[in-house]
C-alpha cells in the first residue's frame, strides 16, 4: 500500500514535467523533423529525403552564416566571462550584507524591462544622432557625427549586455561557497594574487564558469532581436535566416532543417567546449 | 404541447439569429487600415465587435498557412500575392459577389483585382487601398536622386536606405532598363534579371546605412536626417512632408511600383457575415475618406476622396503628375515558386561584404 501510494505521488509530481516535455518540446520537434524531411518538388508536391539538409552544406552562404554566428557567440561568451568574473568576485567576496544585496539587485534591474526595450535603448545611445555621438561632438573629440550602430561591434555590445546577468548569477553562487580561509591560507603559504586566482579561485568556480558559459553561448546563438536591430545591413545571424525561411520565403521545409541543424551544431559546440575544458555536464549541473 | 414546441423553436431561432447578427470580426490587416474611430462607428451600427491584428504581406500568408486559413475572418494581402498562396496552401475561400455592394467600388479597380485574383475560375479578392512604392527624398540634401539606381550614387553614400524585400529587386530592375514583370512567366529569364540586380545591389551595399524593416523605422531615419534618400511607400513620404517640407515622395523615373491591398476571406474564417458587413461599411465614401486620412493612401471606393483633407490631395498631386501616374508599374500576380529565386538572391545580397 505504502509503495503504491508513494509511486502515485512520484507520478503525480512527475506529470507536470512530463506534460511540459512531451507537449511543448518533444511533439513539436517530431513535427518539425517531419517537415524538414519533406522536399518540395512542385506546387503541393513533396518527397521525403535529406535534400533540405544538403542545401545547408552545399550553399556556402548558409554554413558560413552558421560559422559566423557560432564564432561571434563564442566571442560574446568570452567577453561576458572576462567582464562578469570581476563583478561576481566583488559581489561574492568583497561585500557583505546590504551592499551585497544592493549590488546584486543593480545587476538585475535592467532585466525588469523587456529585451526589445533594452535594445532600443542601445539604438538611442549609438545612432548617428544619438547620445554618444552628440556627447563626443560636444566635448570636441569628434568634429562630425559618427555612426556607431549597424556593425559587428554594436551586435557584440548588445549581446554582452543582454547575457551578462546569466554569467554573474552562477558565478556569484559558486564563489559564495568558496571558504575565505582557503584564500587566506594561500596567502599565508606565500602565494601571489595571480597564483591564488589560478590555483584556488578558478578551479573552485569552474562549475559556475562552465554553466554560465553554456547559458550565455546558447542565449547568444539563439538571439534574434539584438543582432537584427543593432546589426543593420551586416546583421547576418543564423536565427534570422530561419525566420526569413519561415516567414518571408514560405519555405518551412528548409527552415525546419535549419532549426535542427542549429540544435545539433550548437550541442556539438557545447560538447566540444566541455571536452576542451575537461569538465563534464553532470559535474557542472550537480554542484 | 405542439404550441410549446413551436414557441421553443421560434425562440431558439430568434436567439440564433441574434447570435449570428452580432459576431466578432477578427481582422488581419495593415497599420492604419482600421482606425479606432471607424471601428467604433462600425460596432455601433452593426453590433459586431472587431479585433484587429496588424501585419504585412508575408506574415499574413505565414499566419494563415500555420492555421490552414483559420484564426481570422478577413485578411488584406496585396492583390499580386493571392493566387500563388491559394495555389500552394489553399488558405482562402472565394468571394460571394452577391453579398458585396459592388456599386461602391470603382469598376476598373474591381475588375482588375478580380482578374488578378482569379484562381480555378473563382474570384478571391476585392480591392481596398492602393498606393505605390517609390523614393522618399530629402530634396534639400539629395535632390539629385530621381530614380532607384541613383540611391547607389557616391554623393549620397552612407545616407541611403531600402528594404531587403522583393519590391527593391523589382524597382532596381526597372531602373536598370529591364522588365521583370514581362519575365515572370519564364523562370530562366527572371533568374537572369535577378543576377544583374544582385550584382548592382551588392555593389551598392556600402552606400546603404541600414536595410529598413518597418514603416516607423524608415520615417525615423529620414526625420532625423540620418537618411536623405530611401526607397519606401508614398504615404510615408507624405506624412514626413507634413513635418518637414523638404522631405517628400518622388515618383521615380523608371516608374513607381503600384500595389492594391485587397479583402480576402480566410478559408476557415467563422464570421463571414461580419466580414461582408465590414467590406460594405468601409467602402462607403465617408468611411473611405476617414481611412485615407489615417492611412495616407487612397481607396478603391467610389467618391472615396470626397472628404480627404486638402493637404493630402495636394501632396499626392505634387508627387504624381499625369505622366507619373501613367508610368506606375502595377504588380501582376506572382507565379508560385518565384519567391524562392528572389529569396536566394536577397540572402546573397545580405551576406555580401
UniProtKB/TrEMBL annotation, chain A:
SUPFAM superfamilies: MetI-like (SSF161098). The keyword Aminoacyl-tRNA synthetase does not apply. Belongs to the binding-protein-dependent transport system permease family. CysTW subfamily. Residues 66-273 form the ABC transmembrane type-1 domain. It comes from Sulfitobacter undariae. This is Spermidine/putrescine transport system permease protein. The chain crosses the membrane at residues 12-35, 70-91, 103-125, 153-172, 208-230, 250-274. GO terms for cellular component: plasma membrane. It is found in: Cell membrane. The keyword Cell membrane applies. It is a multi-pass membrane protein. Keywords: Cell membrane, Membrane, Transmembrane, Transmembrane helix, Transport. GO terms for biological process: transmembrane transport.
Automatic annotation (TrEMBL), chain B:
It is found in: Periplasm. Keywords: Periplasm, Signal, Transport. InterPro entries: SBP, Sperm_putr-bd. GO terms for cellular component: periplasmic space. Gene3D superfamilies: Periplasmic binding protein-like II (3.40.190.10). GO terms for molecular function: polyamine binding. Residues 1-22 form the signal peptide. One of its GO terms (biological process) is polyamine transport. This is Spermidine/putrescine transport system substrate-binding protein.
